[in-house]
Design a protein that fits this description.
five-stranded mixed β-sheet, Jelly Rolls, single chain, six-stranded antiparallel β-sheet, 49% helix, 3 domains
C-alpha cells in the first residue's frame, strides 16, 4: 500500500559548471557548512579544558605520544599494538613540547576531521536527491549529537567520517561498476577495521549491499516471478543456513559473539540493549530521521527504479543491519563481563544513512505507508522502552540522551514529561509528513511543510549536539578543580626526567592520577602499594625489601628502572630523597590532599608507607598498617583516630618487626600491643615509642560499620573503621602544640 504523488522531475545530476564563478557557487554552500560547523565545534573544544573520559582518552594519548617519541606504540613504556589509525593521525601533534598546546592541537585536528563527514554524506545524497536536500542530509550528519565527540581524544573522531566515506565509495562502486571505484571501495572496506575495530562491519555491509543490489535487479525480479512456493521455501532455508554458518564462524573467532549467541537469556539481552542503543540514537536525532530513514528503505509503488536508488537502499540496509547487530552483541557482552550500558556510541555511524533517507522522503514526498507505519510503531516502542538516564549529567556512551539530561538540569523535565514530548514529536511529525504527501494540488503548502520539518529536525540536532557539548565542558571544568592549576607542575620541575608515581591505593576514584599522568609526560611509571591503581598500561606494585628499597625485577641488586623523581601520595608514601615541590588536589569528599615531588636517592628507597586507608582518610575492612623502614635513631609514632560521631569501638595497636613475603613487606614478630577506645565525641591520640630499626604497626578497629546502613541519608556503601593519621617524630612534641583542632 502506498501513496503516489504527481511525478516530479528530480535533479539527479549536477549541471556542469562552465565558469569559475559557477564552480565556486556550486561548492560554496557545502564549504560554508563545513566551515561554520567547524568554528562552532572548535569553540566547544577550546572550552573543554581537560580530558575526562578515562581510560579511553588517556590510552589514545599514551600510544600517540609513544609513536611521536619513538616511532613505536606503547603504554607506560610497555610495547602495545597500534590499536587504531587514529593514533597515527594525532601523533604529530605530540611533537609539540607544551602539553596544553599539543592538547589543543589534537582537539582542533579532531574537530576538522570529524566535521568532514558532511562531504561524503553530501555526495552520497546527491546520487538520489537534489543539491538542497543533499545539503540538508550533510547538515544533519554534521550537526548530530555524535559531533560532541569531536573534542574528545577517541577513535570516533576519525571513524565517523571514515564510515560515511566508505558508504559513499561502496555506493559509487555498485552504481558505476567501474574498476577504480570498485578497487577504492574494496581498499577502504579492508582498511576500515584498522581505523576502529568495530568497522569490521564495513566489509560485511559491502557484501550485504552487493547481495541487495543483485536481489533488486531486473534479472532477479524476473527469475523470482517464476518461483513456486517450494522455491521460496528453499530460498528461506538457504538463507537460514547461511546465517547459521556465519554465526558459527563468528563464534569460533570472536568470544563476544559466542557468549551472546549461546544462551537464550543473553540473546534476549542483545535485542533489548540493541533497542536501547537505537532509542538513544533516535532521541538525539529528533525521532523523525529514524522513522523516515527506515521507511525510505522500502520501495514505493509507481516510483522509477533507478540504479542509484536501488544501490542506496542496499547500502543503507547493509550498514544499518551490520551496526545494529554489532551494537546489540557488544552491549549484551558488556552486561555479562562489565556492566549494563546503553551503547549508542556503537551505532552512531548509521546517522548519515538515516539523514539521506529522510532527505529522500521529504523531497519526493513519497513513502511506502506500511513501511512508515512499521517504522513509527518501532519508534513508539523505543520511546517508551529506552532508559533516558536523566539522573546523570552526561552519559558518555549515549550522548544522544544529552538533550533530555540538559532539559532536566535547566528546565526540571522529568522522564514522564520527556516521554510525552518525544511522543508528540513522533505523532505530529509523522502526521505532517502524511499531510504533505496528500497535498498534491497545493505544492507550495506541501513544500512549506517539508521545509519546516527539515528545519525542525536540524534545530533539534543542533540543540542536542550543544547539550552534549555543554555536558562534556561542564565535566571538564569539574575535573579542572580536581587537579587544580598548574596542571604541568611535575614537568615544570623535572624537565622530562623519568618520574615515578606511587600511590598508597584504596582509591575508588582514579581521576586525579589519570589527570596528573595526562598533563605530565615525565611520569613514566604508575604504581601503588596495593596494586589498586589501574591502567591503561602496566600498573603493578613494586617489590620492596625490608629496608625499603623498591625494585621492579626479581633481584634488588638489579632493580630495573631507577627514577630521578617520584610523586608520592602524601602522607602515606614517604620517599628517601630531597623535597622538590608540593601540589594540592581534591581527593575523597572534595577535601584538599597533597602530592609531593621528591628528588630520589639511588637506589630508590622508601622511608615509610601505610596501607589500607582510603583517600578521605578512613581505614577499611582490612584495617590499616604503617611501615617505618630503617632509620638513624628511635622516635615516636603518633596515631590519631576519629569516628566523626559514629558509635564507639575498641582499638588494638600491634607493633611488630618487618618481614618480607612474596617481595612485599608485612608484619613479622610481634613486639608489643596497646589497646585504646575511640569515642564519638572527638579524636583519640595514641603515642608509641618506636625503635630506630624498621618496624610495622597494625591498627585494628573492632566494631566496623557501613555508613548507609546506619544513616539512610548516606550513599557510602564502604565498610569503615576510623579516620586514621600516622605521624613519625624523632622527638615527642608537647601535647599542647599538637592538640587536635
Amino acid at each position: 500500500m502506498s501513496t503516489v504523488a504527481t511525478p516530479r522531475r528530480v535533479e539527479t545530476e549536477a549541471r556542469p559548471a562552465t565558469t569559475v564563478v559557477d564552480r565556486v557557487a556550486a561548492v560554496l554552500p557545502l564549504a560554508s557548512l563545513y566551515v561554520w560547523l567547524s568554528i562552532v565545534y572548535c569553540i566547544e573544544a577550546w572550552k573543554r579544558v581537560t580530558p575526562w573520559l578515562f581510560t579511553d582518552e588517556l590510552e589514545m594519548t599514551q600510544i600517540a605520544r609513544s609513536i611521536a617519541a619513538t616511532g613505536h606504540p606503547a603504554r607506560r613504556g610497555e610495547p602495545y599494538s597500534f590499536r587504531s589509525l587514529y593514533v597515527l593521525l594525532t601523533a604529530p601533534a605530540w611533537w609539540i613540547q607544551d602539553v596544553a598546546a599539543a592538547y589543543n592541537a589534537v582537539k582542533f585536528l579532531d574537530v576538522l576531521v570529524m566535521t568532514s563527514v558532511v562531504f561524503p554524506t553530501y555526495f552520497l545524497a546527491r546520487m538520489i536527491v537534489s543539491r538542497k536536500w543533499a545539503l540538508f542530509a550533510a547538515a544533519g550528519a554534521g550537526a548530530a549529537p555524535a559531533l560532541a565527540y569531536s573534542s574528545w581524544i577517541v577513535e570516533e573522531t576519525l571513524a565517523y567520517p571514515y564510515t560515511a566515506l566508505c558508504f559513499y565509495l561502496i555506493a559509487k562502486a555498485l552504481v558505476t561498476r567501474r574498476r577504480w571505484w570498485i578497487l577504492g571501495a574494496g581498499a577502504a572496506a579492508l582498511i576500515a577495521p584498522a581505523v576502529r575495530g568495530e568497522l569490521i562491519v564495513i566489509p560485511t555491509a559491502f557484501a550485504l549491499a552487493g547481495l541487495g543490489v543483485l536481489w533488486s535487479s531486473g534479472w532477479a525480479r524476473r527469475r523470482r516471478a517464476a518461483w513456486t512456493r517450494g522455491d521460496w521455501i528453499g530460498c528461506v532455508v538457504l538463507v537460514a543456513g547461511a546465517v547459521i554458518l556465519v554465526s558459527g564462524f563468528a563464534s569460533r573467532h570472536w568470544v563476544q559473539w559466542e557468549h551472546v549467541t549461546t544462551y537464550n537469556w543473553t540473546k534476549h539481552r542483545a535485542f533489548l540493549y540493541g533497542d536501547w542503543a537505537a532509542g538513544a540514537l533516535m532521541i538525539g536525532l529528533g525521532v523523525l530521521p529514524l522513522v523516515l530513514g527506515l521507511a525510505a528503505l522500502v520501495h514505493v509503488r509507481g516510483e522509477t527504479r533507478t540504479r542509484e536508488l536501488r544501490v542506496y537502499r542496499a547500502v543503507a540496509a547493509g550498514g544499518i543491519v551490520g551496526f545494529a547487530a554489532y551494537s546489540s552483541v557488544k552491549a549484551a557482552y558488556l552486561s555479562l563481563v562489565f556492566e549494563t550500558r546503553i551503547e549508542e556510541r556503537n551505532i552512531i555511524y548509521v546517522a548519515p544513512l538515516l539523514f539521506v533517507g529522510t532527505a529522500l522522503v521529504l523531497e519526493r514526498r513519497r513513502v511506502n505507508l506500511l513501511a512508515l507505519a512499521a517504522a513509527a510503531a518501532y519508534a513508539f516502542y523505543l520511546v517508551v522502552g529506552t532508559p533516558f538516564r536523566m539522573d546523570v549529567q552526561l552519559y558518555s556512551d549515549a550522548i544522544g540522551l544529552a538533550v533530555l539530561q540538559q532539559a532536566n538540569r535547566y528546565y526540571e523535565w522529568t522522564p514522564h514529561r520527556a516521554q510525552w514530548v518525544l511522543l508528540a514529536v513522533l505523532f505530529v511529525g509523522t502526521a505532517l509528513v502524511l499531510v504533505a504527501m496528500r497535498l498534491t494540488s497545493r505544492r507550495l503548502l506541501a513544500t512549506a511543510i517539508t521545509a519546516a520539518l527539515a528545519v525542525g529536525i536540524l534545530a533539534w540536532n543542533v540543540t542536542a549536539q550543544i547539550s552534549a557539548a555543554a555536558g562534556t565542558v561542564s565535566l571538564s571544568r569539574e575535573l579542572e578543580g580536581t587537579l587544580r592549576h598548574p596542571f604541568t607542575w611535575v614537568d615544570d620541575e623535572t624537565k622530562g626526567k623519568p618520574t615515578l608515581y606511587l600511590a598508597q591505593g584504596q582509591s575508588a576514584d582514579q581521576n586525579p592520577e589519570w589527570l596528573l599522568e595526562f598533563w605530565n609526560r615525565s611520569l613514566t611509571r604508575i604504581s601503588s602499594l596495593d596494586s589498586t591503581v589501574g591502567g591503561p598500561g602496566p600498573a603493578g606494585a613494586p617489590n620492596i625489601t625490608r629496608t625499603g628499597q623498591i625494585y621492579w625485577t626479581l633481584d634488588p641488586k638489579n632493580p630495573g628502572q631507577v627514577f630521578d623523581y617520584a610523586v608520592e601520595d602524601w602522607p602515606c608514601i614517604d620517599f628517601a630523597g630531597t623535597f622538590a615541590k608540593r601540589h594540592f588536589y581534591r581527593g575523597g569528599a572534595a577535601a584538599l590532599r597533597e602530592w609531593r615531588l621528591i628528588r630520589l636517592t639511588k637506589p630508590n628507597r622508601l622511608k615509610a608507607a601505610c596501607t589500607g586507608i582510603y583517600p578521605d582518610g578512613w581505614s577499611g575492612a582490612s584495617d590499616s598498617t604503617y611501615f617505618r623502614f630503617s632509620g638513624r635513631q628511635p622516635g615516636w609514632l603518633r596515631i590519631r583516630l576519629s569516628r566523626q560521631g559514629y558509635p564507639a569501638s575498641p582499638v588494638h595497636v600491634r607493633v611488630a618487626k618487618i618481614t618480607v613475603q612474596a617481595r612485599t613487606p608485612t608484619l613479622g614478630r610481634l613486639l608489643r600491643e596497646k589497646t585504646a577506645r575511640i569515642t564519638p565525641q572527638g579524636p583519640t591520640t595514641i603515642w608509641l615509642r618506636v625503635p630506630a630499626s624498621g618496624f610495622a604497626v597494625l591498627t585494628v578497629i573492632d566494631d566496623k560499620f557501613v555508613p548507609n546502613q546506619l544513616d539512610p541519608r548516606s550513599s557510602d556503601p564502604r565498610t569503615l573503621g576510623a579516620l586514621v593519621d600516622y605521624h613519625f617524630f624523632t622527638k615527642k612534641p608537647r601535647e599542647r602544640q599538637h592538640r587536635a583542632p
